[in-house]
Amino acid sequence: MSTLLYRESKLGNCLVDSLDELIEQGKLSGELAMKVMAQFDECFIDKLEHKVTAKGTFKGSLDTYRFCDNVWTFIMSDVAFKINPSINGSNTVFRDVRPDGKVKFVLVDAKLSQKD
Amino acid sequence: MQQDVTAVYRSVIDNVITKVKPEFVQEGVDEAVLDELRVLWEQKLLASGALDPPPQAAQDLRYARPIDQGSYTGSTATGQPVGTESRKRTRDYDEQVPSLSQPQTVTSAPAQPQFAQAPVQHYRVPQPQPPGQPALQLLQQHLQPQQPQPAPPSSQAGTRIPQQDGPGDDADEEQAAAKTPAQELGNLSDLESDSDEEQPANTVLAQFEKVQRTKNRWKCNLIHGVMNLNGRDYLFNKANGEMQF
Protein backbone atom coordinates (compact mmCIF):
# COMPACT_ATOMS: atom_id res chain seq x y z
CA MET A 1 0.00 0.00 0.00
CA SER A 2 2.67 2.40 0.92
CA THR A 3 4.04 2.40 -2.60
CA LEU A 4 0.96 4.38 -3.60
CA LEU A 5 2.87 7.29 -2.09
CA TYR A 6 4.97 7.66 -5.21
CA ARG A 7 1.94 8.36 -7.36
CA GLU A 8 2.15 11.85 -5.91
CA SER A 9 5.57 12.39 -7.48
CA LYS A 10 6.01 14.35 -10.70
CA LEU A 11 6.52 11.15 -12.65
CA GLY A 12 3.37 9.63 -11.16
CA ASN A 13 1.29 12.76 -11.65
CA CYS A 14 2.32 12.99 -15.29
CA LEU A 15 1.24 9.40 -15.84
CA VAL A 16 -2.11 9.99 -14.13
CA ASP A 17 -2.72 13.07 -16.28
CA SER A 18 -1.82 11.19 -19.46
CA LEU A 19 -4.12 8.31 -18.56
CA ASP A 20 -6.94 10.72 -17.74
CA GLU A 21 -6.54 12.33 -21.12
CA LEU A 22 -6.72 9.00 -22.93
CA ILE A 23 -9.74 7.94 -20.89
CA GLU A 24 -11.49 11.20 -21.74
CA GLN A 25 -10.82 10.55 -25.42
CA GLY A 26 -12.38 7.12 -24.99
CA LYS A 27 -9.23 5.24 -25.92
CA LEU A 28 -8.72 3.54 -22.57
CA SER A 29 -10.89 1.98 -19.91
CA GLY A 30 -10.50 3.08 -16.32
CA GLU A 31 -9.78 -0.51 -15.43
CA LEU A 32 -6.79 -0.66 -17.75
CA ALA A 33 -5.55 2.65 -16.39
CA MET A 34 -5.62 1.17 -12.89
CA LYS A 35 -3.51 -1.72 -14.11
CA VAL A 36 -1.03 0.74 -15.58
CA MET A 37 -0.85 2.56 -12.24
CA ALA A 38 -0.29 -0.72 -10.40
CA GLN A 39 2.57 -1.49 -12.78
CA PHE A 40 3.96 1.98 -12.19
CA ASP A 41 3.94 1.48 -8.40
CA GLU A 42 5.87 -1.73 -8.78
CA CYS A 43 8.40 -0.41 -11.28
CA PHE A 44 9.12 2.85 -9.53
CA ILE A 45 9.77 1.29 -6.13
CA ASP A 46 11.92 -1.34 -7.79
CA LYS A 47 14.06 1.31 -9.50
CA LEU A 48 14.30 3.34 -6.32
CA GLU A 49 15.54 0.29 -4.48
CA HIS A 50 17.97 -1.01 -7.06
CA LYS A 51 18.98 1.78 -9.38
CA VAL A 52 19.19 4.85 -7.19
CA THR A 53 22.42 5.06 -5.27
CA ALA A 54 22.33 8.66 -4.11
CA LYS A 55 22.39 9.34 -0.40
CA GLY A 56 21.73 12.56 1.33
CA THR A 57 21.48 14.49 4.53
CA PHE A 58 19.33 17.41 5.47
CA LYS A 59 19.05 19.87 8.30
CA GLY A 60 16.45 22.41 9.08
CA SER A 61 13.87 23.63 11.50
CA LEU A 62 10.74 21.63 11.98
CA ASP A 63 7.60 23.74 11.92
CA THR A 64 4.92 21.06 12.09
CA TYR A 65 4.92 17.34 12.66
CA ARG A 66 2.15 14.83 12.55
CA PHE A 67 2.01 11.08 12.83
CA CYS A 68 -1.20 9.52 11.67
CA ASP A 69 -1.92 6.02 10.32
CA ASN A 70 1.80 5.23 10.20
CA VAL A 71 2.49 8.27 8.05
CA TRP A 72 4.76 11.04 9.25
CA THR A 73 4.18 14.48 7.84
CA PHE A 74 6.77 17.16 8.48
CA ILE A 75 6.69 20.76 7.41
CA MET A 76 10.19 22.18 7.54
CA SER A 77 11.68 25.55 6.78
CA ASP A 78 15.27 26.66 6.09
CA VAL A 79 16.18 23.20 4.94
CA ALA A 80 19.61 22.47 3.53
CA PHE A 81 20.03 19.25 1.59
CA LYS A 82 23.32 17.64 0.71
CA ILE A 83 23.01 14.99 -1.94
CA ASN A 84 25.76 12.61 -2.92
CA PRO A 85 25.20 10.82 -6.23
CA SER A 86 26.77 7.58 -5.13
CA ILE A 87 26.44 5.76 -1.87
CA ASN A 88 30.12 4.82 -2.00
CA GLY A 89 31.25 8.02 -3.65
CA SER A 90 33.73 10.35 -2.08
CA ASN A 91 32.29 12.90 0.29
CA THR A 92 33.65 15.78 -1.72
CA VAL A 93 31.05 15.54 -4.46
CA PHE A 94 28.14 16.53 -2.25
CA ARG A 95 25.67 18.70 -3.99
CA ASP A 96 23.97 21.38 -1.93
CA VAL A 97 20.34 22.15 -2.52
CA ARG A 98 18.59 24.85 -0.58
CA PRO A 99 14.94 24.89 -1.52
CA ASP A 100 13.10 28.20 -1.31
CA GLY A 101 10.37 28.26 1.26
CA LYS A 102 8.97 25.36 3.15
CA VAL A 103 9.43 21.68 2.44
CA LYS A 104 6.75 19.12 3.04
CA PHE A 105 7.83 15.61 3.92
CA VAL A 106 5.41 12.74 3.54
CA LEU A 107 6.94 9.59 4.98
CA VAL A 108 5.46 6.14 5.09
CA ASP A 109 6.75 3.29 7.20
CA ALA A 110 9.54 1.38 5.47
CA LYS A 111 8.61 -1.82 7.34
CA LEU A 112 5.12 -1.80 5.87
CA SER A 113 6.33 -1.61 2.28
CA GLN A 114 8.78 -4.46 2.82
CA LYS A 115 5.94 -6.67 3.98
CA ASP A 116 4.03 -6.15 0.72
CA MET B 1 23.00 13.59 -10.55
CA GLN B 2 20.35 14.97 -12.84
CA GLN B 3 21.39 12.47 -15.48
CA ASP B 4 20.75 9.74 -12.97
CA VAL B 5 17.24 10.99 -12.35
CA THR B 6 16.57 11.12 -16.07
CA ALA B 7 17.96 7.62 -16.55
CA VAL B 8 15.87 6.23 -13.71
CA TYR B 9 12.71 7.91 -14.97
CA ARG B 10 13.42 6.69 -18.48
CA SER B 11 13.82 3.13 -17.25
CA VAL B 12 10.61 3.38 -15.22
CA ILE B 13 8.72 4.58 -18.29
CA ASP B 14 10.24 1.84 -20.48
CA ASN B 15 9.51 -0.78 -17.87
CA VAL B 16 5.91 0.23 -17.30
CA ILE B 17 5.18 0.43 -21.02
CA THR B 18 6.64 -3.02 -21.74
CA LYS B 19 4.91 -4.60 -18.76
CA VAL B 20 1.44 -3.28 -19.56
CA LYS B 21 1.69 -4.24 -23.21
CA PRO B 22 0.15 -7.70 -22.62
CA GLU B 23 -2.71 -6.08 -20.71
CA PHE B 24 -3.40 -3.76 -23.63
CA VAL B 25 -3.37 -6.70 -26.06
CA GLN B 26 -5.69 -8.66 -23.79
CA GLU B 27 -8.19 -5.81 -23.63
CA GLY B 28 -8.00 -5.35 -27.38
CA VAL B 29 -6.65 -1.83 -27.14
CA ASP B 30 -4.55 -0.78 -30.08
CA GLU B 31 -0.83 -0.52 -29.49
CA ALA B 32 -0.88 2.97 -30.92
CA VAL B 33 -2.69 4.01 -27.74
CA LEU B 34 0.13 2.60 -25.68
CA ASP B 35 2.65 4.57 -27.71
CA GLU B 36 0.48 7.63 -27.34
CA LEU B 37 0.45 7.11 -23.59
CA ARG B 38 4.22 6.97 -23.61
CA VAL B 39 4.54 10.13 -25.68
CA LEU B 40 2.05 11.98 -23.47
CA TRP B 41 3.84 10.85 -20.33
CA GLU B 42 7.24 11.94 -21.59
CA GLN B 43 5.87 15.25 -22.82
CA LYS B 44 4.22 16.05 -19.53
CA LEU B 45 7.30 15.10 -17.61
CA LEU B 46 9.45 17.42 -19.70
CA ALA B 47 6.87 20.19 -19.55
CA SER B 48 6.82 19.90 -15.76
CA GLY B 49 10.46 21.03 -15.72
CA ALA B 50 11.33 18.42 -13.11
CA LEU B 51 14.18 17.14 -15.24
CA ASP B 52 15.28 20.39 -16.87
CA PRO B 53 18.70 19.01 -17.65
CA PRO B 54 21.94 20.93 -17.32
CA PRO B 55 23.63 21.63 -20.70
CA GLN B 56 26.09 18.75 -20.48
CA ALA B 57 23.25 16.30 -19.92
CA ALA B 58 21.28 17.59 -22.89
CA GLN B 59 22.76 15.24 -25.45
CA ASP B 60 21.63 12.40 -23.22
CA LEU B 61 18.02 13.23 -23.93
CA ARG B 62 17.22 12.63 -27.54
CA TYR B 63 13.71 14.02 -27.23
CA ALA B 64 14.32 16.62 -24.57
CA ARG B 65 16.53 19.04 -26.40
CA PRO B 66 14.28 20.39 -29.13
CA ILE B 67 11.40 20.83 -26.75
CA ASP B 68 13.49 22.63 -24.20
CA GLN B 69 14.75 25.04 -26.80
CA GLY B 70 11.28 25.49 -28.18
CA SER B 71 9.94 26.45 -24.80
CA TYR B 72 12.58 29.12 -24.36
CA THR B 73 12.84 30.55 -27.85
CA GLY B 74 9.31 29.84 -28.94
CA SER B 75 10.53 29.44 -32.52
CA THR B 76 9.05 26.89 -34.88
CA ALA B 77 12.43 26.13 -36.43
CA THR B 78 13.72 24.37 -33.32
CA GLY B 79 10.39 22.63 -32.88
CA GLN B 80 10.63 20.99 -36.29
CA PRO B 81 12.80 18.02 -35.39
CA VAL B 82 10.15 17.07 -32.85
CA GLY B 83 7.41 17.31 -35.42
CA THR B 84 9.29 15.16 -37.88
CA GLU B 85 9.88 12.57 -35.21
CA SER B 86 6.21 12.36 -34.37
CA ARG B 87 5.38 12.22 -38.06
CA LYS B 88 7.75 9.31 -38.41
CA ARG B 89 5.97 7.60 -35.56
CA THR B 90 2.57 8.06 -37.11
CA ARG B 91 3.93 6.61 -40.32
CA ASP B 92 4.99 3.59 -38.33
CA TYR B 93 1.43 3.20 -37.19
CA ASP B 94 0.24 3.47 -40.76
CA GLU B 95 2.35 0.45 -41.54
CA GLN B 96 1.19 -1.45 -38.52
CA VAL B 97 -2.52 -0.91 -38.82
CA PRO B 98 -3.22 -2.81 -42.04
CA SER B 99 -1.61 -5.92 -40.56
CA LEU B 100 -4.02 -5.90 -37.63
CA SER B 101 -7.30 -7.77 -37.61
CA GLN B 102 -10.48 -6.03 -38.73
CA PRO B 103 -12.18 -5.17 -35.43
CA GLN B 104 -9.04 -3.43 -34.21
CA THR B 105 -8.74 -1.20 -37.23
CA VAL B 106 -12.18 0.09 -36.32
CA THR B 107 -10.92 1.27 -32.96
CA SER B 108 -7.62 2.50 -34.32
CA ALA B 109 -9.03 4.45 -37.23
CA PRO B 110 -10.40 7.32 -35.12
CA ALA B 111 -7.35 7.16 -32.91
CA GLN B 112 -4.93 8.04 -35.65
CA PRO B 113 -5.83 11.59 -36.56
CA GLN B 114 -6.19 12.41 -32.90
CA PHE B 115 -2.74 11.06 -32.21
CA ALA B 116 -1.26 13.15 -34.97
CA GLN B 117 -2.71 16.20 -33.30
CA ALA B 118 -2.08 15.32 -29.71
CA PRO B 119 1.72 15.60 -29.53
CA VAL B 120 1.69 18.88 -31.42
CA GLN B 121 -0.61 20.35 -28.82
CA HIS B 122 1.63 19.21 -26.06
CA TYR B 123 4.75 20.66 -27.53
CA ARG B 124 3.02 23.97 -27.19
CA VAL B 125 2.16 23.49 -23.57
CA PRO B 126 5.36 24.97 -22.11
CA GLN B 127 5.41 27.89 -24.49
CA PRO B 128 2.89 30.21 -22.86
CA GLN B 129 4.59 29.88 -19.51
CA PRO B 130 7.84 31.84 -19.78
CA PRO B 131 6.86 35.06 -21.62
CA GLY B 132 3.11 35.25 -20.98
CA GLN B 133 2.70 36.99 -24.32
CA PRO B 134 0.95 34.24 -26.27
CA ALA B 135 -1.71 34.28 -23.59
CA LEU B 136 -2.05 38.01 -24.03
CA GLN B 137 -2.49 37.60 -27.77
CA LEU B 138 -5.14 35.00 -27.14
CA LEU B 139 -6.95 37.36 -24.83
CA GLN B 140 -6.84 40.16 -27.36
CA GLN B 141 -8.07 37.90 -30.12
CA HIS B 142 -11.03 37.07 -28.02
CA LEU B 143 -11.72 40.59 -26.97
CA GLN B 144 -11.58 42.11 -30.46
CA PRO B 145 -14.43 40.20 -32.13
CA GLN B 146 -16.48 40.99 -29.07
CA GLN B 147 -17.05 44.60 -30.05
CA PRO B 148 -19.04 44.06 -33.27
CA GLN B 149 -21.12 41.15 -31.86
CA PRO B 150 -21.14 41.33 -28.09
CA ALA B 151 -23.58 38.57 -27.16
CA PRO B 152 -22.14 35.17 -28.25
CA PRO B 153 -18.37 35.63 -27.69
CA SER B 154 -18.81 36.42 -24.00
CA SER B 155 -19.36 32.74 -23.35
CA GLN B 156 -16.48 31.90 -25.66
CA ALA B 157 -14.11 34.14 -23.79
CA GLY B 158 -15.35 32.55 -20.61
CA THR B 159 -14.38 29.09 -21.73
CA ARG B 160 -10.95 30.05 -22.98
CA ILE B 161 -10.00 32.22 -20.00
CA PRO B 162 -11.89 30.87 -17.03
CA GLN B 163 -10.21 33.29 -14.65
CA GLN B 164 -12.05 36.18 -16.24
CA ASP B 165 -15.36 34.48 -15.70
CA GLY B 166 -16.25 35.84 -12.32
CA PRO B 167 -19.56 37.20 -11.00
CA GLY B 168 -19.90 40.73 -12.57
CA ASP B 169 -19.15 39.36 -16.05
CA ASP B 170 -20.17 42.37 -18.10
CA ALA B 171 -18.34 44.91 -16.01
CA ASP B 172 -15.17 42.82 -16.06
CA GLU B 173 -15.25 42.48 -19.81
CA GLU B 174 -15.73 46.17 -20.36
CA GLN B 175 -12.82 46.91 -18.09
CA ALA B 176 -10.64 44.34 -19.80
CA ALA B 177 -11.52 45.75 -23.23
CA ALA B 178 -10.71 49.25 -22.05
CA LYS B 179 -7.34 48.29 -20.59
CA THR B 180 -4.11 48.85 -22.46
CA PRO B 181 -2.11 45.73 -23.34
CA ALA B 182 0.45 46.59 -20.67
CA GLN B 183 -2.24 46.57 -17.99
CA GLU B 184 -3.56 43.26 -19.21
CA LEU B 185 -0.09 41.79 -19.17
CA GLY B 186 0.19 42.85 -15.56
CA ASN B 187 -3.16 41.28 -14.90
CA LEU B 188 -2.10 38.01 -16.48
CA SER B 189 1.16 37.85 -14.60
CA ASP B 190 -0.89 38.24 -11.43
CA LEU B 191 -2.91 35.24 -12.44
CA GLU B 192 0.21 33.24 -13.17
CA SER B 193 1.72 34.00 -9.81
CA ASP B 194 -1.54 32.94 -8.19
CA SER B 195 -1.38 29.58 -9.90
CA ASP B 196 2.24 29.24 -8.82
CA GLU B 197 1.19 29.64 -5.22
CA GLU B 198 -1.42 26.94 -5.59
CA GLN B 199 1.19 24.44 -6.67
CA PRO B 200 2.56 22.43 -3.79
CA ALA B 201 5.92 23.79 -2.75
CA ASN B 202 8.91 21.54 -2.19
CA THR B 203 7.93 18.01 -1.38
CA VAL B 204 9.78 14.95 -0.21
CA LEU B 205 8.13 11.56 -0.58
CA ALA B 206 10.02 8.81 1.17
CA GLN B 207 9.84 5.90 3.57
CA PHE B 208 11.04 6.29 7.12
CA GLU B 209 13.09 3.69 8.92
CA LYS B 210 13.39 5.54 12.17
CA VAL B 211 12.11 8.79 13.60
CA GLN B 212 13.55 9.80 16.96
CA ARG B 213 13.06 12.78 19.20
CA THR B 214 15.03 14.00 22.20
CA LYS B 215 13.55 17.20 23.57
CA ASN B 216 13.24 19.49 20.57
CA ARG B 217 15.77 17.66 18.40
CA TRP B 218 14.45 15.26 15.84
CA LYS B 219 16.39 12.75 13.81
CA CYS B 220 15.08 10.59 11.04
CA ASN B 221 16.43 7.98 8.67
CA LEU B 222 14.73 7.87 5.32
CA ILE B 223 15.01 5.52 2.37
CA HIS B 224 13.84 5.52 -1.25
CA GLY B 225 12.97 9.16 -1.55
CA VAL B 226 11.64 11.25 -4.37
CA MET B 227 12.13 14.95 -3.81
CA ASN B 228 10.90 17.93 -5.76
CA LEU B 229 12.95 20.93 -4.67
CA ASN B 230 12.69 24.27 -6.45
CA GLY B 231 10.87 22.51 -9.26
CA ARG B 232 13.62 19.94 -9.85
CA ASP B 233 13.36 16.27 -9.03
CA TYR B 234 15.97 14.48 -6.97
CA LEU B 235 16.11 10.88 -5.90
CA PHE B 236 17.89 9.31 -3.00
CA ASN B 237 18.39 5.82 -1.69
CA LYS B 238 19.08 6.84 1.89
CA ALA B 239 18.94 10.12 3.71
CA ASN B 240 19.43 11.21 7.29
CA GLY B 241 17.87 14.32 8.65
CA GLU B 242 18.26 16.48 11.71
CA MET B 243 15.54 18.88 12.64
CA GLN B 244 14.90 21.32 15.41
CA PHE B 245 11.39 22.00 16.49
UniProtKB/TrEMBL annotation, chain A:
<dbReference type="InterPro" id="IPR003194">
    <property type="entry name" value="TFIIA_gsu"/>
</dbReference>
<dbReference type="InterPro" id="IPR009083">
    <property type="entry name" value="TFIIA_a-hlx"/>
</dbReference>
<dbReference type="InterPro" id="IPR009088">
    <property type="entry name" value="TFIIA_b-brl"/>
</dbReference>
<keyword id="KW-0539">Nucleus</keyword>
<dbReference type="GO" id="GO:0005672">
    <property type="term" value="C:transcription factor TFIIA complex"/>
</dbReference>
<feature type="domain" description="Transcription initiation factor IIA gamma subunit C-terminal">
    <location>
        <begin position="59"/>
        <end position="93"/>
    </location>
</feature>
<dbReference type="Pfam" id="PF02268">
    <property type="entry name" value="TFIIA_gamma_N"/>
</dbReference>
<keyword id="KW-0804">Transcription</keyword>
<dbReference type="InterPro" id="IPR015872">
    <property type="entry name" value="TFIIA_gsu_N"/>
</dbReference>
<dbReference type="InterPro" id="IPR015871">
    <property type="entry name" value="TFIIA_gsu_C"/>
</dbReference>
<feature type="domain" description="Transcription initiation factor IIA gamma subunit N-terminal">
    <location>
        <begin position="5"/>
        <end position="46"/>
    </location>
</feature>
<dbReference type="Pfam" id="PF02751">
    <property type="entry name" value="TFIIA_gamma_C"/>
</dbReference>
<protein>
    <recommendedName>
        <fullName>Transcription initiation factor IIA subunit 2</fullName>
    </recommendedName>
</protein>
<dbReference type="GO" id="GO:0006367">
    <property type="term" value="P:transcription initiation at RNA polymerase II promoter"/>
</dbReference>
<comment type="similarity">
    <text>Belongs to the TFIIA subunit 2 family.</text>
</comment>
<keyword id="KW-0805">Transcription regulation</keyword>
TrEMBL record, chain B:
<keyword id="KW-0539">Nucleus</keyword>
<comment type="similarity">
    <text>Belongs to the TFIIA subunit 1 family.</text>
</comment>
<feature type="compositionally biased region" description="Low complexity">
    <location>
        <begin position="109"/>
        <end position="118"/>
    </location>
</feature>
<feature type="compositionally biased region" description="Polar residues">
    <location>
        <begin position="70"/>
        <end position="83"/>
    </location>
</feature>
<feature type="region of interest" description="Disordered">
    <location>
        <begin position="142"/>
        <end position="200"/>
    </location>
</feature>
<protein>
    <submittedName>
        <fullName>Uncharacterized protein</fullName>
    </submittedName>
</protein>
<dbReference type="GO" id="GO:0006367">
    <property type="term" value="P:transcription initiation at RNA polymerase II promoter"/>
</dbReference>
<keyword id="KW-0804">Transcription</keyword>
<dbReference type="Pfam" id="PF03153">
    <property type="entry name" value="TFIIA"/>
</dbReference>
<feature type="compositionally biased region" description="Basic and acidic residues">
    <location>
        <begin position="85"/>
        <end position="94"/>
    </location>
</feature>
<dbReference type="InterPro" id="IPR004855">
    <property type="entry name" value="TFIIA_asu/bsu"/>
</dbReference>
<feature type="compositionally biased region" description="Polar residues">
    <location>
        <begin position="98"/>
        <end position="108"/>
    </location>
</feature>
<dbReference type="GO" id="GO:0005672">
    <property type="term" value="C:transcription factor TFIIA complex"/>
</dbReference>
<dbReference type="InterPro" id="IPR009088">
    <property type="entry name" value="TFIIA_b-brl"/>
</dbReference>
<feature type="region of interest" description="Disordered">
    <location>
        <begin position="50"/>
        <end position="118"/>
    </location>
</feature>
